[in-house]
Amino acid sequence: MDASQELTATLAEMPHQGNVPKELSLFASAECRELHCQCHRLVDTVDAATVTIGAIADGPHDMPSFLLR
Q: Which is nearest to 46 in space by CA: 58, 32, 56?
């Protein structure tokens, strides 16, 4: 949990860090990003000055289906 909190704190200074998840590139906008922290995936979006964390998931998932839930 501490590592995930440290990672989310870095989003204030570098909101566009991470990669665009390949399984979401057609599904979501280019502002959707993915960061990895140990065995977790953090998916966030950036809109102007706001970073919204959409999910913190453990391990691989079918992300489009996971995020629609």
A: 32
State pLDDT tens for residues 24-53: 666 555 578 888 888 888 888 888 878 888
d(CA 32, CA 54): 9
pTM of the model: 0.68
- Burial of residue 59 (CB within 10 Å: 0-12, 13-18, 19+) is exposed
Burial group, residue 63, by CB count within 10 angstroms (0-12, 13-18, 19+): buried
HEC profile of 20-53: CCCCCCCCCCCCEEEEEECCEEEEEEEECCEEEE
